[in-house]
C-alpha cells in the first residue's frame, strides 16, 4: 500500500513538472511559429521532426519503452503544430510570450478578444474578478460569463484604491467567497486594479493564479505585464508590493472606446517613455502630423520592449530600472499634486529634465500633441515633491539613481544629487 502511495506521489510530482515543461515547450513553439511566418517558412518541417524522433528516442534507455515514447513525441509534435497554426490564424490574436525565471505566459492582443477570455485563460473554476467603480461593469460581466463561477468585487476608483485597507477588504472578500488554492483572481481594470489585484493574488493562501484584463491604455502598454504589484502606504507610492507574474494577459482594445481622452493621453505617456528610450523609428511615428497609426501597433511595440526588459531582469536588479525613466521626478510630482495630475501626466513631466536638449526639443511637441503637460503647465509645491522623492525607495546615500536619454532610442543610468533633482523640478513649475 505504501509503495502504491509512493508511486502515485511520484506520478503527481512528475506530471506537475511535465505540465511546466509542456508550457515552456509551447511557448518556444509559439516563438518559432511567429519567426516562420515572418520568414515565409511552413509550420511543418518533416526533416527536423524525424531528426528529433531519432535523437530523443535514443535517450530512452529501456528499449521496451521506446515505441511508446516515439508515439508520445509524435503526438506532442502534432499538438505543437496545431497550436502554431491556431496562433497564426489571421483572425487570431497577436500573441507574445513573456519569458521570466518564474514562468512564461502569453499576452494576447486583439480587438473584441474579451468575449473569448474563457478560451485563452483557464477560467473553469472560481474566478474572483476585481474591477473598480469607474470601469464599465459590462467588461467584468463579459469575463464572468465565461468562468466556472465568478465573483465580481468592485473597489473604489482612483489611486486611493491602491491602499492597505482596500487590499485587506479584498482578501477578506476572497475568503468569504470560499476561494481555494486552485481558484484564481482576475483584474479587469486599469493599472490601479492590476497592481492591487495582483498583490491580493500573490498573498492569498501564499499565492494563487492571477490573470490580467487591462482596460486602460496605460495598463495595456505597461502595468499589466511584468509582474509588479503594489499598494501605497503612508503617502509613499508602491511602498508595499511583490513581483508576481500573471498566468496570462488578455488585451481587448475595444474597451478603450469608453476611456476618456485624458486617460488615453495618460497611457501614451508610458508608451512615449518606452519608445523614447528604445525605439527611434517608432518615436518618429509619434512625430507624424497624421498621427501614430493603429493603437494596436503602439501597444504591440511597447509590449515587445517591455517583455525584452522583463526577460533580461525580472526583479529590477539592473536593466529593468530603465522603465523608471521619468518616474523619479514623476512620483514626486504625483505626490505633490494631491491627485490633480494622473500618473502618466506626472511621468511626462518627469521625463523632460532627464533628456538632452535636442531630445527635449523633439519630445515637447509630441507630448503636447498627445495632450500631456510639459514645462510650465502646472503649479506644484517643489518641497512636497522633494519630500516624496526623499522617501522614494530608490533614494540611496543622499543621491538618487536616474535614467537619462542622451539621444532618442538610447538611455544611460547615473546618480543625481538631491539638489540637482530640486533644480530639475524647478524648471517644470508654472510661474505664478
Ligand atoms: N505594475 C506596473 O508595472 C505599473 C506600471 C505603470 C503604472 N502602474 C500603476 O498604474 C496605476 C495607474 O493606472 P491607470 O492610469 O490605468 O489608472 P487607473 O487604473 O486608476 O484607471 C484610470 C481611470 O479609468 C477608469 N477606467 C479604466 N478602464 C476604463 C475603460 N475602459 N473605460 C472607462 N473608464 C475606465 C478607472 O475607473 C479609473 O477611474 C498607478 O497606480 C501606477 O502606479 C503600474
Description:
This protein is of the alpha/beta class and 432 residues long. It folds into three domains: 2-90, Up-down Bundle (Chorismate Mutase Domain, subunit A); 95-259, Rossmann fold (3-Layer(aba) Sandwich); 264-291 and 300-428, Dehydroquinate synthase-like - alpha domain (Dehydroquinate synthase-like, alpha domain, Up-down Bundle). The protein is 50% helix and 17% strand. The protein is built from 16 helices and twelve strands. The chain has helices at 2-38, 46-57, 66-88, 117-120, 137-144, 164-176, 191-203, 217-223, 261-278, 280-287, 295-312, 327-337, 343-351, 357-370, 382-391, 418-428, and strands at 94-100, 103-109, 126-132, 149-155, 184-189, 209-214, 228-233, 236-243, 248-251, 395-396, 399-404, 412-417. Strands 1-2-9-6-5-3-4 form a seven-stranded mixed sheet, sandwiched between helices. β11 (399-404) and β12 (412-417) form a beta hairpin. The mean pLDDT is 92. Bound molecules: nicotinamide-adenine-dinucleotide. The site of nicotinamide-adenine-dinucleotide has 30 residues, from α7, α8 and α9. Nicotinamide-adenine-dinucleotide binds at residues 132, 134-136, 157-159, 162, 189-193, 195, 215-216, 218-219, 222-223, 226, 228, 238, 255, 258-259, 263, 266, 270, 343.
Largest sheet: spatial strand order:
1-2-9-6-5-3-4
Tell me, what's the shape? globular
Helical content stands at 40-55%
Estimate nothing, just give the exact number of structural domains: 3
Question: For the report, how would you describe the main beta sheet?
Answer: 7 strands, mixed
Count of distinct strands: 12
Distance between the termini: 83 Å
How large is the radius of gyration? 24 Å
Amino acid at each position: 500500500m505504501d509503495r502504491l502511495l509512493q508511486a502515485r506521489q511520484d506520478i503527481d510530482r512528475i506530471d506537475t513538472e511535465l505540465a511546466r515543461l509542456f508550457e515552456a515547450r509551447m511557448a518556444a513553439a509559439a516563438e518559432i511559429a511567429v519567426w516562420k511566418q515572418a520568414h515565409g517558412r511552413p509550420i511543418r518541417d518533416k526533416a527536423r521532426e524525424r531528426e528529433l524522433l531519432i535523437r530523443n528516442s535514443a535517450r530512452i534507455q529501456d528499449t521496451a519503452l521506446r515505441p511508446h515514447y516515439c508515439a508520445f513525441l509524435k503526438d506532442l509534435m502534432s499538438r505543437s503544430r496545431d497550436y502554431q497554426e491556431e496562433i497564426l490564424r489571421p483572425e487570431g490574436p497577436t500573441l507574445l510570450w513573456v519569458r521570466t525565471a518564474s514562468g512564461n505566459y502569453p499576452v494576447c492582443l486583439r480587438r473584441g478578444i474579451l468575449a473569448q477570455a474563457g478560451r485563452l485563460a483557464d477560467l473553469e473554476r472560481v474566478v474572483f474578478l476585481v474591477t473598480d467603480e469607474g470601469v464599465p461593469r459590462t467588461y467584468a460581466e463579459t469575463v464572468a460569463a465565461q468562468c466556472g463561477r465568478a465573483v465580481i468585487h468592485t473597489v473604489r476608483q482612483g489611486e486611493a484604491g491602491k491602499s492597505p485597507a482596500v487590499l485587506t477588504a479584498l482578501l477578506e472578500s476572497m475568503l468569504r467567497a470560499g476561494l481555494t488554492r486552485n481558484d484564481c483572481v482576475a483584474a479587469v481594470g486599469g493599472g490601479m486594479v492590476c497592481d492591487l489585484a495582483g498583490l491580493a493574488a500573490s498573498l492569498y493562501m501564499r499565492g494563487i493564479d492571477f490573470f490580467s484584463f487591462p482596460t486602460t491604455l496605460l495598463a495595456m502598454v505597461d502595468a499589466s505585464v511584468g509582474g509588479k504589484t503594489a499598494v501605497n502606504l503612508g503617502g509613499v507610492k508602491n511602498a508595499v508590493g511583490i513581483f508576481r507574474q500573471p498566468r496570462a494577459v488578455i488585451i481587448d482594445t475595444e474597451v478603450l472606446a469608453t476611456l476618456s481622452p485624458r486617460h488615453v493621453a495618460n497611457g501614451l505617456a508610458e508608451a512615449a517613455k518606452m519608445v523614447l528610450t528604445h525605439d527611434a523609428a517608432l518615436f518618429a511615428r509619434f512625430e507624424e502630423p497624421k498621427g501614430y497609426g493603429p493603437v494596436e501597433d503602439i501597444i504591440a511595440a511597447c509590449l515587445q520592449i517591455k517583455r525584452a526588459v522583463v526577460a533580461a531582469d525580472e526583479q529590477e536588479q539592473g536593466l529593468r530600472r530603465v522603465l523608471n525613466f521619468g518616474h523619479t521626478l514623476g512620483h514626486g510630482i504625483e505626490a505633490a499634486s494631491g491627485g490633480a495630475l494622473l500618473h502618466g501626466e506626472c511621468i511626462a513631466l518627469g521625463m523632460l529634465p532627464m533628456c538632452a536638449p535636442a531630445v527635449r526639443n523633439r519630445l515637447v511637441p509630441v507630448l503636447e500633441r498627445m495632450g500631456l503637460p510639459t514645462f510650465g503647465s502646472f503649479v506644484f509645491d517643489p518641497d512636497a515633491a522633494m519630500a516624496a522623492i526623499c522617501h522614494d525607495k530608490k533614494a540611496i546615500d543622499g543621491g538618487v539613481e536616474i535614467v537619462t536619454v542622451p539621444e532618442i532610442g538610447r538611455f544611460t543610468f547615473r546618480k543625481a544629487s538631491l539638489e540637482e533633482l530640486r533644480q530639475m523640478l524647478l524648471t517644470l513649475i508654472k510661474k505664478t
